[in-house]
Amino acid sequence: QGKKARYKVVALLPGAYRPLLSKGMNLRLELSGYARSSQDLPIATVGDGVISPNEARRYLGAGIGGAVRLGGSVFVVEAPLPGATFTFEGNKHRYYDGMYGYGEVVVRSEPILVKLLPGLKGLWGNK
To answer: Which of 88, 69, 64 is nearest to 9 (CA)?
Structure first.
């Protein structure tokens, strides 16, 4: 019995947010061309440093790195995919190396009531 192939997402996130992210947070992934089919993935690794756009392109390699548009410094996070396929509109599709998507991580949140009445912020701490 051979080893099962592991699939992962490599995401480049804006460098300014590096201090706010840690392993275990959720990365919400939406693949390009598959709107409204996002999935939450636990972040397995977070890069130690913030890197330049050119360094990020080298990290991704010539094929993918050349097609990525970056507007500033970034850091790398990786999250495992739950398997080799994803579901879109009721049909299963395979993941392929080089697929693009959008990733987001919630780094700050507070109850909507605090937005309406900022004086209540102390009740919820500094989330």
So the answer is: 64
> Pairing mode, if any, of strands 45-46 and 39-42?
unpaired
Question: What is the Cα–Cα distance from 38 to 83, expressed in whole angstroms?
Answer: 15
pLDDT, position 76: 94
> Where would I find the H helices in 17-105?
53-60, 62-65
81-118 exposure pattern, b = at least 16 Cβ within 10 A, e = fewer: eeeeebeeeeeeeeeeeeeebebebeeeeeeeebeeee
pLDDT at res. 113: 65
Q: Which of 79, 104, 82, 81 is closest to 20 using CA atoms?
A: 104
The C-alpha atoms of residue 62 and residue 58 are separated, in whole angstroms, by 7
Q: How confident is the model at residue 73 (pLDDT cuts 50, 70, 90)?
A: very high
What Å distances lie between residue 84 and 78, 87, 93, CA to CA?
Answer: 16, 11, 8
